[in-house]
Amino acid sequence: MARSADFLPRLGIAMLLLSSALALSSCGNLNKDGMSTGAIPDDYRTRHPIMINEVEHTLDVPIASGDRSLTIGLQDSISGFAQEYRNSSSGVIQIMAPEGSPNSGAAAHARKQIRQLLVARGIPSNRIIETSYHAQANGDAAPIRLSYVATTAVTNQCGEWPEDLQNNTFSNRNYHNFGCATQSNLAAQIANPMDLVTPRAQAPIDAGRRSTVIGQYRTGSDPSSD
């Protein structure tokens, strides 16, 4: 009888500890929305994924009514735009000049110089298309716009706040805009968007250089001095 009396309190304590453990486990795994807090499905990489889309790249070249030639600064900007085009696109590049604006005469003259500069920077002439657009006659000086289309790494638009931050704090979730700036900066730094899809092929092995380096290693000389 003594053993039975001792066994009952021990059994009660064990049951109490088991129920407490189950309650704590339930509280730790689920929040008030029924989602698992151990693996919250709101990763910023899923909410703001980096995608490869077709994007129009543009450059507005300001032309004053009295300009007779492109300045050195404008030539450098156009040359940089041409280099970006050659690295990312094989399509056409458009030169759109304004018509009807106060600077339309100067823009028509500058368009010829821009075409010559693009050709000099390695863009084939058959890929350059010259068009025009209507500008306000009584408005400000309208720019010449250069544009081309290329596949580019992009992400969602940042700065969106669809709900109160207080709601995210209570549910232990990241706010909607969290991580968007990081993803956007990373996408802007990707030189070749195809690197997100597949790795590049390895360069062939330079057998001669390899033999030289191994020989210098064996003799104890410095390979960097070669």
TrEMBL record:
What span is annotated as the signal peptide, if there is one? 1-25
Ordered alphabetically, the record's keywords are: Signal
The regions listed as transmembrane in this protein's record are: none
InterPro entries cross-referenced by the UniProt entry: Pilus_biogenesis_CpaD-related, Pilus_CpaD
- For this entry, the protein name equals CpaD family pilus assembly protein
